[in-house]
Amino acid sequence: MVAGFGAGDPDFVAALRGEPYESPLTAVAEYLGVVRRLLDGEAVEDFRGRYVRLDGGPLPLPHAAAAAPCPRVSLGVGVLRPRMAHTAGQVADVAITLLTPACHLREAIVPAPARGAGSRGRPVPGVTAIVPCAVRGPGRDPRKLAFAAHAPHLSGEHYAAMLRSAGLDVDVSDPWAGAGALVDGGVFAYGTAEEVAAQLTGYGEAGATEIALSCAGVLLTEGPEAALADVRAIVEAVRDRAGRPAPVTLGPCPVP
Question: Which of 33, 134, 214, 254 would bridge 167 by S-S if both were Cys, CB 3.0 to 4.6 A apart?
């Protein structure tokens, strides 16, 4: 199991805390540090960080000390920019991305966890790329699917800034146009199952160690069965492609 955490949308954090984190990097590092120690069965009885405080002791049944053997819980961090990816390298097992163009993943994200891990002498985390996708079908509009799934992300400046740095024209005031930019820029993978599988190959070439399919647009507009049908079709196409690999060459991100 990978338990993924993120700093959250600044407005949401402010609604909970009264103000956003002055340093999301510190908040994430403190929180994951405590969670890791608890999962490893350590008694964390008095932790006082800048953002995280904990009174208590070990979990009643730490997974590392469970009676029956169980896999280690891995910790993931949601990352948009190199600095958070660097923090993931210091405290996490996986860096998790969403809506990240393959070129941005390769150039800005993938190198950072290795540097962070090197600064702490720990293993380099994997990189999981969550890729929004859908299979072309009658009556489907990829822009509508992208908007259904990601209008809140496209309305957030933290996501918009990341996408602009990768060369996409995204403005938080117009998430509908942003959805079109996701499709036109290949961030929302759309086409036949074989075409989507080919686009996913680019993320592996960019350095992703795991690719997670997100058919949220189909799920929210057509329901779970339609979304699962897309997942099955894409996975089958990926399997077929694995038997006849083709080289993929990524160019640089466009200059904004």
Answer: 254
